[in-house]
Amino acid sequence: MNTNHWRDRGQRPVPVRRQFWIFCGVAAIALIAISVAAVTASRSLARNQALRDAERTTTRLAELVIAPLLPGALEGDVELRGQLDEAVKNRLADGYLTDITVWDSTGRVRYDSDPRQIGRRLALPDEAEAAISRGVASADFTDRPEATVAPPKPGGPGFVEIYVPLQVVNRPSLAFEAYYDYGRVNTLANQMLTELIPVVLLPLLLLQLIHIPMAASLASRVRRQEADRYKLLELTLSASERERVRLAADLHDGPIQDLAGFRYAFAVWTASIPEGQSPIALKLQAVIHRSIESLRRLMIDLYPPDLDASQLPRTIFDLALPLREQGTKVTITLSSLPELDTDTVTTLYRIVKESLNNVVEHAAATSVSINLGPRGTDRGAAVYVRIADNGIGLDEAKLDRRAEGHLGLRLLKDRVNNLGGSLRLTTGPQGGAVITAVLPNRNRSSAEDSATAMRTRGQVDGHYSTETVETGSV
């Protein structure tokens, strides 16, 4: 059981608030995921668009500039060769187009923007072969041109490599290769990206800005409704508590007192009856005793009407009877308490009662220990109670039993906090659940009058003894 999660919450758990933040977190994650996907897709789209633009530029350059002048230049026409060189030089001037090469099917460089490469025979690139034989244009990225011996610049942006088929009059098909500065292509892609991103992300951001205030308003409304329901439930439970006290007082002052008086009178009368009727009288006495104990347990279950600090030891012993009867070993260590106010005594009683009820119904424990006494070196400054079992632990979902008419540990935690104390639920060293509550003593003047304390131990066999010990830190 994750007890820290329950213990570290605020004074009153508000799941709606956490759900609101979960909603905001999921919305933020969704927005980030969509933004990353949109940026990635937009960048890919922009990059592909830049490649297509470079391919179209290369096709136009091949058809309109290279194809008309190349045949004469290859045949040795000096004027046409000069025009071709000048046209290529002009295209290279802005730095976007960096190099061009014309290949034939044998791998020979028929023309190049670097005159030193013209006439070289190299391994024909696959893209050039596809452009010559099948008329296929292609675009890719590379770190340096094919027809060059210069090593690539370290850390350079690289090149966009374009191959398009080149048809010239009365000559076999050629391949036209052009290289563009990738930095310029990347800049173009980024420009397109900045144009696409606002169109994609702004509507999503506006949608989130609309949803979050609406969700916050709904969460606030639900929290208010929960707070109102909580107050109504507390009022209902408080009224139920008062009714329990009244019924317990009626049992104590009515049937229990009457039966106790009748038992005393019957015992006196039994002493004078004939010896032959004694077994019947003893059976009747046992029935009366069981009836008194049954009503007394019912009274304790409702609420002890005369409960105060001095009555807590006996009351806690009675609360442990159901566990003892089902075979659970119960060890009770009770130090005498200073005089406590009614709210503190009631809260201690309810903590023990709810804890033991949870042990009976859920824990499947074989042993339980209960410790109650003053807390701290300043004796009487506070009082503590600790209930530990070796069972399966408490399911957090079962801590709130208000719907069943019980106070529940959650509501008791709120009551303890309201009194200035603390209540913690932890796991024991060998498993099970440990409930520890510490409450300040608001009757310090009375507490300072006590010099010794009584430690009371109750065992599974019902033994109930006391011994005097010096009060110390617990």
Short description:
This protein is an alpha+beta fold. It has 11 helices and 12 strands.
Describe the protein's architecture and organization.
The protein is an alpha+beta fold. 53% of the residues lie in helices and 18% in strands. The chain contains 11 helices and 12 strands. The strands form 3 sheets. It has a 5-stranded antiparallel beta sheet with strand order 2-1-5-4-3. A hairpin with a 6-residue loop joins strand 7 and strand 8. Helix 2 (15-74) packs antiparallel against helix 3, helix 5 packs antiparallel against helix 6 (278-302) and helix 9 (342-363) runs antiparallel to helix 10 (408-418). It is rod-shaped.
Backbone structural class:
alpha+beta
Low-confidence stretches: 1-14, 402-406, 445-474
User: What's the number of helices?
Assistant: 11
**Structural shape:** rod-shaped
- Radius of gyration, CA atoms, in whole angstroms: 46 Å
The strand line-up of the biggest sheet is: 2-1-5-4-3
* N- to C-terminal distance: 27 Å
Number of strands: 12
Strand content: 15-25%
**What is the H/E string?**
HHHEEHEEEHHHHEHEEHEEHEE
Mean pLDDT: 75
Q: Could you describe the largest sheet, including whether it forms a barrel? A: 5 strands, antiparallel
What fraction, in percent, of the residue positions are helical?
40-55%
